[in-house]
Amino acid sequence: MITITRRTARLVRAVVRRALGLSGGSGPSILFQARNDHLRVCAASDDVVAEYRCAGDFDDEQVWVPYECLVACEARNDDPVQFDVRSGHLTVQWRDSSGPQMVQHEVTENGKREPLRETPHELQRNPPALRQALHHAVMTTEREAIRYAVDHIQLRGETGEIVATDGRQLLIQSGFEFPWQEDVLVPRNLVFGCGDLPGNAPVFVASTGEWVVFRIGEWTFNLKIATDKRYPEVDPLIPRPQDAVARFHLAPGDARFLSKSVLRLPLDDELNEPVTVDLNGCLAIRTKANGQAHPTEIVLANSEVDGNPMRFNCNRRYLVQAVKLGFRHAYLYRPNVPAMFHDERRSYVWALLDPETAIPPDTNAVRVESSAQLDSQDSPTPTRRRKRLKMTEPKPNQQSGSDPNTEETAADNPAENGNGDVIEQAEAVKASLREAASKTSQLITALKRHRKQAKAVQSTLTALRQLQNIEA
After folding, report:
1. Which is it for strands 366-369 and 296-300: parallel, antiparallel or unpaired?
2. CATH architecture of the region 2-106
3. Where in the chain are the domains?
4. Fewer C-beta neighbours within 10 Å, C or N terminus of the chain?
5. Which CATH class is domain 124-235?
6. Structure pTM?
7. Mean pLDDT estimate for the chain
8. Helix axes 252-261, 316-324, angle to 10 degrees
9. 3-state DSSP assignment of residue 145
10. What is the CATH T-level fold of the domain 242-372, as seen in this structure?
11. What is the pLDDT of residue 112?
């Protein structure tokens, strides 16, 4: 008999589901192998083997548990779950809020895959950032490939780079160490984005010749190396930052505003999801739905634009993807040439759409500026500033011989300074108040204008939803 907790059952089920790409409540049988002071749990598919190890006091035993059993008994508590095999039947017992539970399964060979042999003892240590980089690479690949292996990621041993592309976007990340020299291909795997893995654990990497091994905490993942697949030549597609003719830098608050707002804008093409990005003194993003008289425009007022004016079209999801990856610096070359986000260790290149369909500026556009939408810690709504008056420093009156701490300042004793100083200070106060009143009036006007624009955007979105309902 092997005993684990319901929490462990949930952990194994959640990670195995991601690693093997399972959906629903069915999957392969999972091997539970107890050996004195540790428990080994293995699940496998054709190109992935996931293994979990935990320490404990166990009797030597081996049990194949159907995936469905873990789905049934899992929970977020430490109540025990018992797996017992007798007379060709597996009995699983646990207790929940309704009382004792028990299920039985006939022991068969269906769904069983022998686990991989022991992983190498020598593994290359990498920082926890490798796990996030692998997840970002997977999010840049295609789910299925036809000609090139764009459903795989490339691990470059000589340069320590991770390369991923789906044919329309390309992500290259560097700064890692792999214990091989050649370039290897491994299948995309969603497990690296699983929240049940330890977040701050280093990632150890090894290769057995046929498999690439990743060890993260108590988990080990073996991805089969693809030797019969072709990967596209991506290096010529990467432009140089110094060749860019236009650039923009996203302010942190603008980046968050962009990721939240751009995906809500109305579109006239749901397939390519085009947006126009206009770099002409400021950074503006425009969209226009079918039947809409004037475009909707977002202005990222806190971001910086540099270089030649440029207007280009692109899929909005690539902009959002770059922002989610943490990029802030973009480099543009021509409206029909792929653009690039770039930082010290990463490059993200994405294809642009037909520049002839770019949306030109419109004075009647529904315009929303990011400065009016951001929270106070990013770029607060303009506030009134007080003009600080320069006051005379207090000085001791040596002639009176009194205590310096009780001396009047020159501003507090107009009789000694003359009427001229008093009048100048009064004029300064008057000018400060006039300036504050003017800025307050401008602020109220700006707030009213933004409120009117927000109502117009809401009206446009409501009309679009109604049109969609009519078409449906």
Report:
1. parallel
2. Roll (3.10)
3. 2-106, 124-235, 242-372, 413-471
4. C
5. alpha beta
6. 0.75
7. 84
8. 140
9. coil
10. DNA Polymerase III; Chain A, domain 2 (3.10.150)
11. 64
